[in-house]
Amino acid sequence: MKMKIAIAQMDIAYGNPEENYIIADRLIQEAVEENPDLVVLPELWTTGYDLERLDEIADGKAAESIAFLEKTAAQNGVNLIGGSVANRTGNGVENTLLVISKDGKLVHTYSKLHLFQLMDEHHYFIPGTGTANFELEGRGFAGFVCYDIRFPEWLRKHASKGAEAIIVVAEWPKLRVAHWRSLLIARAIENQCYVIACNRAGSDPKNVFAGHSMVIDPWGEVIAEAGEGEEILTAEIDFDKVKEVRGIIPVFEDRRPEHY
Ligand SMILES: NC(=O)CCC(=O)C(=O)O
Hints:
Elements: E1 2-9, H1 17-32, E2 38-40, H2 54-57, E3 59-60, H3 63-76, E4 79-88, E5 93-100, E6 106-111, H4 121-124, E7 133-136, E8 139-145, H5 152-160, E9 165-169, H6 177-191, E10 194-198, E11 214-216, E12 222-225, E13 231-238, H7 239-248, H8 251-254
Parallel strand pairs: 1-2, 2-4, 3-4, 8-9, 9-10
Antiparallel strand pairs: 1-13, 4-5, 5-6, 7-8, 10-11, 11-12
Helix pairs in contact: 1-3
Bound molecules: ligand LYUYDEPV.
Ligand LYUYDEPV binds at residues 43, 116, 119, 146-147, 150, 171-173, 176, 179.
Domain CN hydrolase: 3-239
Keywords: Hydrolase
Protein name: Carbon-nitrogen family hydrolase
């Protein structure tokens, strides 16, 4: 089974959800012209890292973001990874990834587990507690948020539980673009699965972001990579390739988890 992916490498308006809904809508419309099965938005695409104003701009129970994404998915008949949004819950604000099916239904949420101290996340967000595994079009996916990719054991756990494609939504600074590329390629090789990684473009008062959204195949080959600016990046993924690579080197059979 094949799937066409479109990554919306968005330049996010700092702390301005209203403007970001307009930008996201424009990019999704542009992506839909390529007839994708799935469109992916970046991390915190409604607010950016305007953490000091989070009390004011975080979305209560992610309701407004979910309503926008459900409507957009249904109108265009396309599955959406609605990036992640600042989601105000009863316990605090979570950085929550949203998955919406092409019939306009929220099918999965995952809140970032690893909070990135270098960008002050631990002062403003609480970590999630849920699984990253979900199903779309009958295939196994797992969706993570940015810094999560530095924790290979977390991604491995989800690959072991059936993820054939790993989604990553990010606001990854340009300063560490070499880490971004290497970590994503390593996660694809070690888990023998596709990695579909959507970073943001542009800058905010503290960081210039890397862009370089990527799609990597289960052998670790980069099959599509964006530049630094706003862009729609497309690629076709083939789930048969996951089976093929896992058959050549049976890493999942050869694991010895009782020793580690
Ligand atoms: N938004 C993030 O989680 C950034 C992670 C990051 O930059 C890193 O180096 O890790």
